[in-house]
From TrEMBL:
<keyword id="KW-0479">Metal-binding</keyword>
<comment type="similarity">
    <text>Belongs to the creatininase superfamily.</text>
</comment>
<dbReference type="InterPro" id="IPR003785">
    <property type="entry name" value="Creatininase/forma_Hydrolase"/>
</dbReference>
<protein>
    <submittedName>
        <fullName>Creatininase family protein</fullName>
    </submittedName>
</protein>
<dbReference type="InterPro" id="IPR024087">
    <property type="entry name" value="Creatininase-like_sf"/>
</dbReference>
<dbReference type="Pfam" id="PF02633">
    <property type="entry name" value="Creatininase"/>
</dbReference>
<dbReference type="GO" id="GO:0046872">
    <property type="term" value="F:metal ion binding"/>
</dbReference>
<dbReference type="GO" id="GO:0016811">
    <property type="term" value="F:hydrolase activity, acting on carbon-nitrogen (but not peptide) bonds, in linear amides"/>
</dbReference>
<keyword id="KW-0378">Hydrolase</keyword>
<dbReference type="GO" id="GO:0009231">
    <property type="term" value="P:riboflavin biosynthetic process"/>
</dbReference>
<keyword id="KW-0862">Zinc</keyword>
Length: 248
């Protein structure tokens, strides 16, 4: 059930049986020579919709832009500052809490969002209590990173070994290929790819990772692999969501 394709009355009826909502969040950032700029948001949205369909949960609109300041030296990247993202997440949760939701499960597609999301949750808990919003003490937030699912990680290692890398990975590129086969990009990639550099400024990132990849070989990706990753992520995060909903 998609929030943006529902009426207020349908949401009201849904809240009579569940207080949970899934919120996909990704990023709009470079993903190497063959990865789509929207990769992180595309993956999070697809997996979130899949989970919602399987377990009949409400799915909110995708937050397409995240914290990707270190990628902004590459054309096309759009980023929020951590402080801006914290306020955005806080306002999302505050609005939905006023409507009656208390369980917020963020399906995330971007590693760079994790620290800011956790900070946003802490800010939001305090904010809701300061406002004395009803049910504020019942609000709980959790992150489900599809790319960190145990089953996804295991398959990526089996298929790609060390060539999975840590950014512009064949696993995430494969998932976008499954979702958007018409947008598959083919470019001859250098066999030499940078890895293991620490992340600092955007300029430094591009100097260390000139083509945007971090130890990865996305040429190994296929739409068939993407379908496997999709199925595994939907199953694992679906179970995680249900555990979250059943917890105190």
């Amino acid at each position: 059930m998609l929030l943006h394709l529902s009426t207020w009355h349908e949401v009201e009826v849904y809240l009579e049986q569940s207080k949970g909502i899934i919120l996909p969040i990704g990023s709009t950032e470079q993903h190497g020579p063959t990865g789509l700029i929207g990769t992180d948001a595309i993956c999070a949205e697809a997996v979130a919709k899949g989970v919602g369909e399987v377990i009949k949960a409400m799915v909110g609109p995708t937050i397409n832009v995240g914290m990707a300041l270190h990628h902004t030296a590459f054309p096309g990247t759009i980023s929020l500052r951590p402080s801006t993202m914290i306020l955005l997440i806080r306002d999302y949760i505050t609005s939905l809490t006023k409507a009656g939701f208390t369980k917020f499960y963020f399906i995330n597609g971007h590693g760079g969002n994790i620290a800011t999301l956790k900070a946003a949750f802490s800010e939001t808990y305090a904010h809701l209590e300061d406002l004395q919003i009803p049910n504020a003490s019942k609000v709980q937030c959790q992150i489900g990173n599809w790319f960190m699912c145990g089953s996804v990680y295991k398959l990526a290692k089996e298929l790609y070994g060390d060539e999975e890398g840590s950014h512009a990975t064949p696993s995430e590129v494969a998932l976008t290929q499954y979702i958007y086969p018409e947008a598959i990009k083919q470019v001859l990639l250098s066999s030499e790819v940078a890895s293991s550099h620490k992340i600092y400024s955007a300029t430094n990132f591009r100097e260390c990772y000139p083509d945007g990849r971090m130890g990865s070989n996305p040429a190994l990706a296929t739409p068939e692999h993407g379908k496997q990753f999709y199925d595994l992520a939907v199953k694992e995060l679906g179970n995680s969501y249900l555990e979250f909903m059943n917890s105190d």
